[in-house]
Each structure stands twice: as structure tokens, then as C-alpha cells.
Amino acid sequence: MPGLDIMGVSKNFGSLQALKDINLNVDTPQCIGILGPNGAGKTTLLKIITNILKPSEGKILVNGVNVNQNPTKALEKIGALVEQPEFYPYLTGRETMKFVARIKGMSVSGSSEEIEKLASITGITGYLDRKTGEYSRGMKQRLGLAVSMIGDPEIIVLDEPTFGLDPRGMKEMRDILITLKEEKKRIILFSTHLISEAREVCDRVIIVDKGEIKFNDEISDMRGNKMRIRGSFNNIKNIPGAKDLTTKGNEITLEMKPGETRNSILRELMENGVEIDSVEGMDRMEEVYLSLVQ
Amino acid sequence: MTNRFSITYGYYFRNYYRSRSFYLMLLLVLLVSGLMVYLSFRYLNKLPDFIPELKGKAISTGLKEELFLYIWAFVLSDLPVFAAVFFGSPAISSEIENRTAFQIFPLPIGRSVLLMGKYLASVSVTLVITAIYIIVEVITYIIVFPGQLPVTFFKSIGLLAVFIFSISAFTFLVSSIFKKNLYAYITVFLIYFIIFSAMNIVFELIYSYNPFFLLDNAASIVERVFVNVSTSTFAVNNSIAGASFSSIMVALLVMILYLVVSIVIALLIFENKEVK
Description:
By secondary structure, chain A is α/β, with parallel strands linked by helices. Chain A has nine helices and 14 strands. Chain B has twelve helices and no strands.
């Protein structure tokens, strides 16, 4: 079973402490979203995991191998897409992928098959034989994701993977991550600014602020019992199954009482003549994030 | 290890020879070669006039051949400097400036392997560029002086090859210090063409001493194997004969020292490089 151990990692840039005593152990396949404001230390952490930066203190073990002391061995299990990816501009996408595949020990024929497969998944098949210097930001992002998946790594580290993508690209990227998590059983660490993205893709969320992990919990534990309902209401003031009901225009926010279900609340509303347009479940993630991050 | 090295070398070489810098150098070498061919035929009979001591004198064909090769080699010894500046100066700084380090540092390959692969790729494209000039030189020589090339020519080419390794290593060292390509370009030019020249003038004028330890002086052995004349106005120990064996060995040693020291320091810096 793959494992990632982050043990007491701190990072200083001069007098600035970018990371403070970060500890994290991941030994089961899951997707971990790292949330935090700009400058919180998310990317610094991912860079230390991928040997782009060295920790000032502490260590990172990949399957028990110290990334700082034996990077060649430790990084065999890692695929990474860190910051906005840039490639050697005079190599084509195919050559870039082949370069990485061959370095990861794949044969020439094996790497060709892998390239076709990953290009198809990430939607860059038609661009494979163009020089990467001619790629758009979004295409580079897709190529970066394809490169990070070469050799089927056990741990995938992605730094804001949907950055620079159009809405369709963002959706496709999230679908790829969900597939990697659910079908391939990989450990995925990815940073994002988007709470909705973390909610959709991740099993666990870590909130980082000012170089510290402020929160680390499973998404399932953050599911709340709040609902947001949009529709047309006739001065509705009270619903027996709900508490903390607030009405604002054509929107009601409420919290279900213990034992109540979403269906029972909706039934009550409809019996009171409410026409419902949309219903949205609300979890605690946003609340938690805003309470921790100043 | 060897396999990963050859893969790295192959891809870097490909990235180099497709670059604009390569085509710019190719254009430069073709222009310079063309100019040298023209000058060779235009001033063939005035070859002795290039050396003040021989001005207006009749000289033997052997010396004429040596002078011909000296002048071609004089230009040749500067070509690797320009090529190394184009290919070597941005070698490491560009990984930071162009952000490609974010792609290569997380790969399961030693940074020393990456650096050496890139270094040899850079040396290779410089060799290709200089080879074009040398081919034109040989063809011109054979037309002007039918017969075999002298052994000294091959000595000069061997020394040039060492110089290419040496100057490329030096530019890699400079590149490893900076995060911006422009700073690396300027620094190499400043050191090689201004600081070294200034040191030459100071040592030769004030102390009448030949600063053999400077890389540009060591590189001049490429032409001095034919005729031991330095173009510096203040140069000491000029001679119509080729450089002595000891002078060749000293120059060779200096170039090898620059090569080894530069590569070792560049490796150490690259190994510990961080990208914020």
C-alpha cells in the first residue's frame, strides 16, 4: 500500500516562515484537497513533497523513502503538476511525454501506448505532434496532467489543476480526478481555491493558513443538515421539521431538525403551497473555512 | 543511469537544435565562413603583412600555409564563445525563468544526470556549429594549397574541442548562479570579453607577465599552434614558430581545470537549487 508521511515539515524563506511543523499521514487511497488563501503555504508544501524545494526542518517519506535524501527512488511513485506547467518549447507534446515516460523506465513501445491513452483521457490527442511552445495555457495544463499520470504513479500531486481551464475543461479535469480516485485507487493531493471543487472531488480536506494546517477532516464528517431552497413562497414563517428558517427574496435557508429528512421538509413546503425551483444541500465546509481563514 | 543519461541527452539535443539560438548561430557561422573564404582569396598574397615582422618579405609556402591556418583558427577560437553564450548561458537559469524546473525536478532522475545530459547536448550543438566552419576551412585550404593538411591542424582541432568543453562548462557555471537568462548572458560576455581583456592588459603592461591562467589566453593556443603570435598589442613572447609543447600543455591544463572546476561547482549549485 502506498504511503505518504509528512513529518514535522517547516520551511523558511529568510525570516518568513512559509510552513510551520506540518504533519500528515496518508496511507489509504483517497483524494485530499488542500484549501487556503493565497500565500497560505499550499504550493510550498506540494513543492517540498515533489523535491522542488527542500524542507528547512522535518522530512517527507514516500513509501518510507525520504524525498530529500533519496529523491530518485522516492519520486518514482509520484506524478506531479506543480504551478502553471511550462515545457521545453521546441519539443512536441508527444516528445515531452515520451521523455518523462522513458525517464520513468518505460520501454519505447510501452510509452507510445501510454501516451495515446493519456492523451485521449486528457483531450490532447490532436495536439500531440505540435511543439509545446505553441500550446495555449489550457493545453499546457492538460499536458501537465497527462505528464503527471505517466507510469501510473501511486501518488499524484496537483497544484490547482483546473487553473486556466474553461468550464468544460474544469469539469473534465474533475472527472479525471474522480476516476483516478475511485477506479485507480490512487492517493491524490491537490490544492485549490475552490471549495466547491474540493467538495466535489475530495474525500478529505485540509485547510492551510499562514503555513499551518488549521483543519483536517473527512468531507463526510462535514456534511451538514442545512438546505437552501429557491422558489416562490407565500410569507412562510414556520415549517415544523425545520429550525433557523430565514427567508430572503425567493430563497429560504433552513436547518433540518434531528430525524427529519430532506424529502419530509420538501413535502411540508409543497403542502404549504410553495413552488420549488431548486434545492441545494449545504455543508459546513464554507463555514469552517471562513471561520479559520482570516 | 547510462540509459537515463542518454535519454536526457537526446531530448535536450533535440530541443537545442530546433531552437532559434541554433539557427541564429548557424546563420552567423555561414556568414563568417563566407567572409573568411572571400578574404582568403582576396588577401592570399598579403598573408605575410598580417605579421609586422614579415611585412613585405617573401615567405616559404610552409609558413604561408601556417599563416593561413592561423588566421582561420583565430576566428574559429571565438565561435565557441558565442555558441556557448547562446546555448550554455541560459542552460540552468532558463529552467527557473521559464519555469520548466517545475516539470523536471519532480522526475525520478538525479539532477546531476539532467545537468550532464544538458551540458553534453550543449557541447554537441556547439561542435556541430564549429564543424561547419571547419569544413569550409578545409575545403578552402585544399583549393588554395593542394595537398594534405598539416598535423598541426589536427592538434588545433583537438585543442578547440577541449576549449568547447571548457567554455561550455564555464557558461553552465555562470548560468547556475542566476535565475534570469539575461543576467547570465551579460555576465559571460562581461567576464570573457571585458574582465579577462582588462586583466590581460594590466598583467602584460604593468608586470610584463602573460596571464596564462585566463581562459581566453589558454584558448588562443588553438591558433598559436600554427604561429605563436598573440594579437594583444602588449603581448610578450611572440614567435613565428608554433607554440612550444610546454605552452600547449599549460593551455590544455588550464582549459581542463576550468572545465572540471566549473562543472563541479555548477553540479553542486544545481543539486541544491530550489524554485520558489
